[in-house]
Automatic annotation (TrEMBL):
The keyword Secreted does not apply. The keyword Phosphoprotein does not apply. One of its GO terms (cellular component) is thylakoid. GO terms for molecular function: thioredoxin peroxidase activity. This is thioredoxin-dependent peroxiredoxin.
Amino acid sequence: MSVKVGDTAPDFTLTSQNGSTVSLQDFRGQKAVVLYFYPKDDTPGCTAESCAFRDQYEVFKTAGAEVIGVSGDSHESHQRFAAKYNLPFILLSDKGDQVRKLYGATTAFGLIPSRVTYVIDQQGVVQYVFDSMLNFKGHVEEALKTLQQLTA
């Protein structure tokens, strides 16, 4: 079952690239969260998407949001990926894709983990879902547009 607009975002706790644990609940009442699921560290599409989030990270922060990327890679892999591309935001390791399954962001083309972005407001309610394997920058653009509408 997929998480949809209007649903309360399911809480989770995962390990970040620096080895600390991060829970979605940590942000509730504090800031909005842009949660993006991506297939794999250091692949062309995922690098393009993550770098697009990096390039707009200050704009997300100004809009009162934290960006969090999630894939099945290890936290060590995330650490290398973040360092290589100067990614300033949180990357979480979802070994076994449990959180991906919880959100219903499972596979694209029946083969590879899908690329889905959720905009979650401060109250933990999903305000927007963007699902596209190939429109890497669209994930960033649509998330920013949604955040700007929330704060308007």
